[in-house]
Amino acid sequence: MTTEPPAISPVGPSFPTDLGSIRSMIEYRFTLLDAYIDINGLPTFLVAQEPVKEKFRELLRDLANHNLSAKIRRVSEKLAISVFPKPNLGKPRKKINLVLFLATIGTVAAASYYLLVFIVDPRLIVAPFATLSLTWQIMIFAIAVLGIVGIHELGHVVAVRRHRMDASLPYFLPVPPPFPFGTFGAVISLRGSPVNRDQLFDLGFSGPLAGFLATLGVAIFVILTAPIVTQGEIAQLVAAKVLQSTAWPNDPLFLDLLGQIGLRTVPAGHVIVYTQLMFAAEFGALITFLNLMPVWQLDGGHISRAVFGDKGHKIFALVAFGILLLAQYWGFAILLIVLMFLSRRPLEGLEPLDDISPLSNTRKVLFVLSLCILVLSSFILL
Prior knowledge:
By secondary structure, the protein is α+β, with helices and mostly antiparallel strands.
């Protein structure tokens, strides 16, 4: 998840560059039609309508040398470029990032201990890794959870660095037991807006893609290392309510599909018993599914805003809330509504500086992939 950047500041006594110099920079690349100060106090330049993606990126680089930025919008048959000072963002708060990360390590470890010692039936503790102690099992579970969350955020960091966007390091969100996984994930705070829809899409898609691949890796590891038990033993464990057999929609869809492609050879009369480490994979599927909801500042919200624009994003947000309610994610839906209305723009997604240039064809294909990941990660809480 990423949060919105600071608000745009109007022109004032501290405006770093005279308007004549700004006009010259715009005339160098665009056909200038008019210039004025808009109602928000921003110097605005009307230019002729034409493809602007590369020209506007070059203009932003020129303006950045003067501590300025700009946004471009369509006005009737013309394009309007509004120029504004870059906000004073202050120094990154890396100590807070580190403290929250260390706290999250502690809460995930505590939650892993709580889950394996007090929640999971003791008769199952010996099954996952017969040669490992309980301490090692707790550590492996905690590493899997932290790894999925960390790789999800690493995906965002890679996108931010690739596009040279200004963003904070991840703020991990620790949650103590009895919350079963010890964390709500992490948040990256943007310190500037994405340049265009391509950047906005990459920002939203990179985290869920990386997190889903990590989740898939954990699930495959579980399948390859899980014990194979006779059907008679399984029947006894199920009768004793130590085990239960579940499938989609109560498990992530991709887990059912992995079970059907034959990653391991199972002798006749035997069954693979997934270990409690699969809970980590289910957690990864959960955060991937929820983050891909096309709502507000969630990753899926950035994706839908980049693909469909402002109006389409709002329509898909309503659809997403319907899905959350049907899938019985009531608590998450309520939390989202609260967070949305505490923000400056509760019903709007993250707005790129260039909201005119269309999304690239490659990213339109990746959008279909994001929908596939959403479906594969889905399951219903009962």
